[in-house]
């Protein structure tokens, strides 16, 4: 790939900083000026300065050999060879007589004419320094400061990606095969355009990568840069936006001018939603800076002037807010969806990242992939990194399966807070709360299997029941939603059955929040209410000027009352289902809660074994709580235990979208 770069000059690797180079140049100029002044300035070689009275005394004492008398200075030489100078007293005419009486040779000194060059240099030096500093500052802002400089606002901030930036190829991209295949075709077109053009095909003008955060959109773009063998410019959507009107449009023009000089080439715009949002949200006549920038981008991509050989690749996780004119064929001919990987993709991604760490023989990437549904590529990379860090903290030479399991629990449920002090009452209420979730989940056929239940505080939760689906789910059925609602209510119902109505704690806060949100979506978005019907009554819309998201309910006041009644009916129905299960199986609730108090953490298999056999066989593990120390205090536990997958949260924080 070419190393040519028409953008801002970059310091050579290992070379001096441009600011330091300029500072050294100006420092050298200043030193030269000082040297010139020191050479041409009148030199006073008169030696030691003495008082005039002292000079006359030395003359009388016979110590002075000779003198030269000037208008404002007398210089002379002592008989011992030392030189001196003194300033005469105005109007003293007796000095020549005194010198003659003491046999001192004297003469007059010619009047020195000032050096014109030195005079000019001395007087012009401050102005030269001021001009030099101003020139230096402007040059740095325009050149070294890049497009952000005072004289370079309109310059594009696009940077050319070279081999030095770290080459990434399609071999480094795993788990998103369909997206990779579409982009590989663009690379093949750049390498051999005649293969397609002879059949009448035209090179795509643009490709939009759409996907959730962390799915690998930027990695795909870097792989294209590594494979294409053509100049590759990269820029962020936010780099176009400035406080000065017209700067963004100027940068778009400059970016395409650079691209034309290097065609065929690829221009990658990351997070294009920063500049490509739908027009019409501005104030007044909607002619704000961002819209001008978007208009210029639309013209450059497909206007009267054809930009042949320039392929625009953009990435966003918000395709819903992009302007329709930006998405039409001829601008972005292809919209490439980069999805969250399925189990096969997760296994391939894990294998790519596991190459970088030493693995123990017991590590099975397939097992880890099965236990991480919904994880993106970035999540899986973080999982491998966390496992490696855990192994390092445990002074192990290899990363074993245990580290991956612990890292998975840490990523999914949060870090253990074993140092957190809980009272016996808090631990007991937490154990029954989580046991309620677990028991209802086991009695709901549509519920996901339990992966792990714990009363060890993790993240912002005092305890949680973690459920994992047996396979990847792409849609959810009504019975699954009713089961999730019942499981969410299981913790609160267990507290009420065991401790009484007056002792119900705030621990079910996030459960209630989750259940309310799920029930509202069932009624207003998914048409799962018989009375309301299969209509959408609520939709998300972008806030004013693009700030935030707001939910808008469509319907009359009577319809809104019916919606609220249906939401309440769904939640109360789930509460009744959970109550029926726990009241009929109260003995199992006690058994499960006591086991959680004893072991603190139980796997799904251990819970099933306990409920079938009445005991758990753990011969190698000491029983009893090991780290949570009981103290006396309030019996009301903190809020925020999640009953299922996802991080717990507190009363003050937002609830996760799902469990």
From TrEMBL:
Subcellular location: Cell membrane; Membrane
Source taxon at top rank: Bacteria
Residues engaged in binding Zn(2+): 433, 437, 511
Principal subcellular localisation of the protein: membrane
Cofactor note: Binds 1 zinc ion per subunit.
Enzyme class at the top of the EC tree: hydrolase
Domain spans labelled AAA+ ATPase: 203-342
Annotated function: Acts as a processive, ATP-dependent zinc metallopeptidase for both cytoplasmic and membrane proteins. Plays a role in the quality control of integral membrane proteins.
Protein name as it appears in the record: ATP-dependent zinc metalloprotease FtsH
Source organism phylogeny: Bacteria, Pseudomonadati, Pseudomonadota, Alphaproteobacteria, Sphingomonadales
